[in-house]
Design goal:
Helix content is about 45%, strand content about 20%. The chain is built from 2 helices and 2 strands. It is an alpha+beta fold.
């Protein structure tokens, strides 16, 4: 989550889902990146990725 998203939603998400939440660079505009290193899962659900996919 971007710093702004983390400040706004971080505590709510952490309490509800008990997840490790890390800040991502503001260049991602917003959204989130989900990772599960044990299962090798990586999901980029950021606005920057969405825009990039639309332009391809």
């Amino acid at each position: 989550m971007t710093k702004k998203d983390l400040e706004k939603y971080g505590d709510i998400i952490n309490k509800k889902y008990n997840l490790e939440i890390r800040e991502i660079d503001d260049k991602y505009i917003g959204g989130c990146i989900l990772e599960n290193n044990i299962q090798g899962i990586f999901i980029d659900n950021t606005f920057l990725n969405s825009i990039s996919e639309q332009l391809v």
